[in-house]
Amino acid sequence: MDYPFIIIPILTGIFTQLIKLLLSIIKHRKIELKYLFTPGHMPSSHTSFVVSLATIVGFYYGISSIEFAISACFAYVVIYDAMNIRIHIGHNGEAINKLVKELNLDNGYPRLKERVGHLPEEVFVGAVLGFLFSMFLVMFL
Do 68 and 61 form a contact (C-beta atoms < 8 A)? Predict the structure, then answer.
């Protein structure tokens, strides 16, 4: 097994989650560890992870290889899900939470998450971080 193909994306995902935590500390002026494990928000660690994988595969096998094509397609599906499908789940959660409140059913239903997807800028930053951090690790590991 070639360890860079698993180690580098994992390290990149962890690095991105730590940046997410740091940004939440700056924004909220308190430490909220939930940002280490929560989907959504800036930057996208899902995007960072899959872009890291595609970057490593492209670096070792070349961007014209079948391995790169597979990793790029995988990255596309994950990024599409993060930006489109999961963002709609959040909108649904918001609408359901509003209905529960209007119908005075607050104590019988749990509050649904309203932020599970990513905005385009969060995905872009995640992609840039995934590429740059992966290349940094390739050069120094």
Answer: yes
Q: Say if CB 14 and CB 129 are below 8 A apart.
A: no
Judged by phi (left if over 0) then psi (alpha if -120 to 50, else beta), residue 39 lies in beta
**C-alpha to C-alpha distance for 46 and 59, rounded to whole angstroms:** 20
Residue 38's Cα: distance from chain center in Å? Answer: 9
Helix axes 45-61, 66-80, angle to 10 degrees: 170
The pLDDT tens digits along the chain (141 residues) read 468 899 999 999 999 999 989 988 898 898 888 777 777 778 999 999 999 999 999 999 999 999 999 999 999 999 998 888 878 888 888 898 888 888 887 777 788 877 777 888 999 999 999 999 999 999 887
